[in-house]
Amino acid sequence: MTDAQETAADSSLRTTGGAPPDDVEPAPIPLLEPRDGIPPVVADDASLAEVIAAFAAGSGPVAVDAERASGYRYGQRAYLVQLRREGAGTALIDPVACPDLSGLGEAISGVEWVLHAATQDLPCLRDIGMVPTRLFDTELAGRLAGFPRVGLGAMVESVLGFVLEKGHSAVDWSTRPLPEPWLRYAALDVELLVDLRDALEKELDRQGKLEWARQEFEAIAQAQPAPPRKDPWRRTSGMHKVRRRRQMAVVQELWETRDRVAQRRDISPGKVLSDAAIVEAALSVPANVHALAALNGFGHRMGRRQLEQWQAAVDRAKVLPEAELPQAGQPVTGPPPPRAWADKDPVAAARLSAARAAVSALAEELNMPQENLITPDTVRRVCWEPPVPADSDSVAAALAGYGARPWQVEQVTPVLVGTLSVRS
User: Fold this and answer.
1) N or C terminus of the chain with fewer C-beta within 10 Å?
2) Polar residues compositional bias: what residue ranges (predicted)?
3) Domain 3-222 part of CATH 3.30.420.10
4) Which residues fall within 8 angstroms of residue 184, CB to CB, at 6 or more apart?
């Protein structure tokens, strides 16, 4: 670490989530190079074994990050994994060349992993055998501490006083070989992650929120992978315009055809056919290839063979028996949309309005986003079907049953008890 880096890091926390600094802040320092230089990319078993041994012998938490190729490739697999640990330095690993990192995951299994926005990276890390047992999420810590901007660059700047270059965040990380500027960017992403973690821990402790954060981190570490989404084609952008069941069938056929093509070619589905084009075809239900080619999204750059592929999908939807057409809506497992409450149950609507106002006031008092204090879905469920009697014990049990952590139950129960008796 350079002298400038030492000075800024030693200052620990430059600003808190809500309090202004006492003195004028020094100008942030651009972080241009990793302190140990850019390490070579690990792309063979022998090099991986050396990294595993080094990180197993290191000390303290392990900074972990992963880069995906969202918008370029099919799926959300990792194309680069970055780690840093005291005594081991920084490692950049190519998970395409080394697809099984379970040995590395086991070597640091009992160690605290430090990630930024952990829920974004954990699925792709899990796919290559890396699953933490303990973690610290610096983005979530920033939210709980009340920071208005919680991106990694913003946090590093406001907390540690460094400016991270973020120009390569949206590049195609499946590119091989990876350019040196990208590798520098990737190494810098884990350069100060542990320093950031240490400063945020002190700030959370100062605010009396450290135990809250620990409960949140434990919940993330213990969470099971989400099951595959049912009918993912229903999330096509612009789907709200599609009203008729036959048109929905067109969306489904085009979406599923696009997904198969994208998976086979290993490219982002949006690069095969846009959502807007799918919706356009569903609303028009073109009679033939000529009519399809006249629609937006199926223009002159699309070849005859491709047009025939999409028209075949439309034709399959056109001849689908009425009984097999998609239903207009999905089964609702929870409360109805809040906009419908006033008509369906005015008393419940009044409860929800009062509860939202109370939760909002409490979140402001605690200096954190409402959704981190308690999920909006949990509030809706409790207000739609409040426990009987709506006393502290039953409300606390209901919140816990919906997955609220103990600290959330303790904070939110008193304000919800006071609102669940609202009648009008």
Assistant:
1) C
2) 1-15
3) yes
4) 33, 34, 38
